[in-house]
Specification:
Blueprint lengths: L3 E4 L4 H12 L5 E4 L2 H11 L3 E3 L5 H7 L5 E4 L4 H15 L2 E4 L4 H9 L1 H7 L2 E3 L7 H13 L5 E8 L5 H10 L4 E5 L2 E5 L5 E6 L2 E7 L4 H9 L3 E7 L2 H10 L3 H4 L2 H9 L8 H5 L2 E9 L5 E9 L1 H19 L4 E2 L2 H5 L11 E2 L1
Parallel strand pairs: 1-2, 1-4, 2-3, 4-5, 5-6, 6-15, 7-12
Antiparallel strand pairs: 7-13, 8-9, 10-11, 11-12, 13-14, 14-16
Amino acid sequence: MGGWMLYGANGYTAKLILDLALKRGHRPVLGGRNRQAIEALAREHNLPARIFGLEEVATAASALSGIDAVLHCAGPFSATSAPMLEACLQAGTHYLDITGEMEVFAHCHQADQRARERGIVVIPGTGFDVVPSDCLAALLKRELPDADALVLAFEAGGGPSHGTALTAVEGISKGGRVRVNGHIEAVPLAYKTRSFERDGEPRHAMTIPWGDVYTAFVSTGIPNIEVYMVVPIATSERLRKLNRVRWLLGLGLVQRWMKGKVRAGGPASAKRDDSACTLWGEVKNAAGKEVKKQLTTVNGYDLTALTAIGVLDHLLAQHPAGGFYTASQLMGADYILSLPGSSLR
């Protein structure tokens, strides 16, 4: 087993990942900028620690000396992914993260050739964003190879973590995104709404700029993609009204105010245990043939720990060729079905 680093190890989701890693016999290096929090966590588990920020790429690359892979968990990834990726490219260290941000996927994808030349794997989105949905898209593509339209949707219980909520605040001023004829297009917030059925009951959902709008195209080549999230009807109505003042939501003062309202931490273990995730997938070809599947998984936080460590284990054991990968490209479409609590119908 190669040596690896969990960066941003003091975050809510990172601690869940660490707990699972320790149970599986891993002894990662803990990394981050918060000396007090990282060193306390390292002492608690008798693990090595490296304290560094990402302001200077050369410093970060030096801190990665002797590290085979970094599992990057310090968001918001819009600010932290690019310098960490560059540090990994300079150090020859595999890059993994748990982002769901479309721009991060795009930036990482652009580094494909450099990653090949350096012999390192670059795989963003190794958590709930976007492993289950990417595998679902690949399963649907396998069943309908000539599909030209893909719809994905999800309902995730448990509530957002601090990092996920901050990402949502940052993205609200940018509006939505869909893929049309192979190109990503900007659309209003809550651009479309529709319902998906769960246990015989309709679930209201709206389009969101989820990472699959980028990654599912890379995985499947399907040129038309929409991603929906189940929300209360009132939520989609409010967001549609916000389209009129969306420019205002991007102002620094407004952003700081909204971020100040975000609570630290995430859902308690009891709440996670009582919640699960449902994902829907639909593909259609030009002749109108349609295939639909529904995937159920454990809650998104525990799933992120399972998939992130699963991808890391695969990477360190199998030594795949360098380059950019999506989850289904590296792990296979059936990977999600191998995890406890996952079922497909």
